[in-house]
Design brief:
about 110 residues, alpha+beta, 5 helices, globular
Length: about 110
Amino acid sequence: MLPLTSDARKRFRLPFCPLTDGAESLPVELIDLCAAISGKGQVAYVEAEFFGGDGAQASVIFNGAEKEGPITIDAEAINSALAEIGVQRLNHRDEFAALGLDKHRDTDDWLLK
């Protein structure tokens, strides 16, 4: 897992949640990063943005440095992408929780706590 924290986004000039903010395609900077990371297997780029209970989830799968599927924006986008790359929910409520992604509300907190 590579969390795109505020510092990482600034360093690599990556936008914050472009898909849930209305972009119809991933910015080239994110495509390049995901392609580089997925050179040896599947990678899921996921994002979620919520405020006051309203929000959205988005995902894109990369495999072998190529975008493998369409951009998905829906209520199950993250769990669907995680399941596709092999995450198993086991005794957790979903794939998101199985990876511990439900422990913090803000991505920056994943590295600090």
